[in-house]
C-alpha cells in the first residue's frame, strides 16, 4: 500500500507547528490551497459545547 503526502497536508502541518511555521512561514506551497484563519478559541468552545450537551458517541 502506498501512502501519499498531499501538499495540503504539508501546509496544515506547517501552519500548526511553531518551529516549522517560523522556518517555512513565508514559503509558497504549490497546490496547497487556502487555509482559513480560524481562532482556536472558537473551535474549543464548539467541542466543549458538544460534550456538555450529551452528544452521542459513535463507538460500536
From TrEMBL:
One GO location term (cellular component): nucleosome
GO molecular function annotations of the record: DNA binding; protein heterodimerization activity; structural constituent of chromatin
Protein name, UniProt field: Histone H2A C-terminal domain-containing protein
UniProt superkingdom: Eukaryota
Domain Histone H2A C-terminal: 20-51
InterPro entries xrefs: Histone-fold, Histone_H2A, Histone_H2A_C
